[in-house]
Amino acid sequence: MSHNESQHCSFSDVDELMKTVQLVVHIPTFLLGLLLNLLAIRGFRTFLKKRWPDYAATSIYMINLAVFDLLLVLSLPFKTILNHVQTSYPSFCTVVECLYFISMYGSVFTICFISLDRFLAIQYPLQASHFRSPRKIFGICCTIWVLVWAGSIPVYSFHGQVENYKCFHNMSDGTWSAKVFFPLEVFGFLLPMSIMGFCSSRSIHILIGRRDHTQDWVQQKACIWTIAANLAVFVVSFLPVHLAFFLQFLVRNGFIVECGAKQNISVFVQLSMCFSNVNCCLDVFCYYFVIKEFRMDIMAHRPSRAQLVLQDTMTTRG
User: HSE (CB half, 13 Å, CA atoms) of 125?
Assistant: First the structure.
């Protein structure tokens, strides 16, 4: 989100460097992200079909997250190509930018709601079936889609009347105005991160507190790893890029004027955006721990061989 040239400060070297970095990062991210998220969607669909009542809530959330990640993955080739050329189709550039930010903030909100859902289930286990019904979870996911699509409206005016139109660059001054930036920063990141931090810490605290009073500690330990993986992926993926956005806001509003600092911030913005895309691959850790948790729960509730023999014997005798 840097502009290529300023009156007294050139960003051409920075942009050339980042073109190479993006190719190195985006190609494996696209290939891995495409494969991993398709496998994740397939895996959670299987849980939905075979064990609908037990794992519906989490599976719906995870499929929703994987779809957002898949959307980001599919936007990467266009983002990379359009970053190298001067497009003569601004509307197509706007569509790619729109898909990119929809997928980013769709992932933010979905991960946030996964954390909130898990916390409520842990804190209020007796009421969990009421507020975690598949219909309600599906409604929440649909609401997330509506919110991120509505929130993408400012994307259509990202470039305004700037010259040398280029995708993901040359954003207009209006894009970096306080009335656009702060709602994005607060509602798109700070609020979800606060909710997720609170829910994750409380959930882990509750589960650890039950350690000496539960017979399925191994399963609850898997749940703790799932919560920790979600939180770690969220922070690593989205904290640097939103910090970079804030620094760029200071640059574009005249609070930072020194050329070297502006160039370094430009590198940080593009680098953090580049590596935030790896989130679509990092989410596989969340999928892994959730599926592991599902399987441990299935094994814990599966009747033993002795129980099956006894049940078969009783049936035969009857």
Answer: 4
Work out whether the CA dihedral 38, 43, 46, 52 comes out positive or negative. negative
Does 314 map to a domain? no
Q: How far is CA 307 from CA 104, 302, 312, in A?
A: 48, 10, 8
- Domain that residue 35 falls in: 12-302
**All residues at 6 or more sequence positions from 142 whose CB lies less than 8 Å from its CB, including other chains:** none
Question: For residues 168 and 158, is the Cβ–Cβ distance under 8 A?
Answer: no
Q: How many domains does the chain have?
A: 1
The tokens for 165 are 């139109």
> Is 230:114 a contact under the CB 8 Å cutoff?
yes
Question: Is residue 16 in a domain?
Answer: yes
Residue whose structure tokens are 């760029």? 248
- What CATH number does the domain containing 277 carry? 1.20.1070.10
7 domain residue, yes or no: no
pLDDT, averaged in runs of 10, over the chain (318 residues): 55 83 91 93 84 74 93 90 72 85 94 91 82 88 94 73 67 80 92 96 90 73 84 92 94 90 91 89 81 70 44 40
Residue 276 lies in a domain: yes
Q: Kind and range of the H or E element at 11?
A: none
Residues 79 and 82: their CA atoms lie apart, in Å, by: 5
This prediction has a pTM of 0.84
Rounded distance between C-alpha atoms, residue 10 and residue 70, angstroms: 35
Amino acid identity at 184: L
CA 155 to chain centre: 19
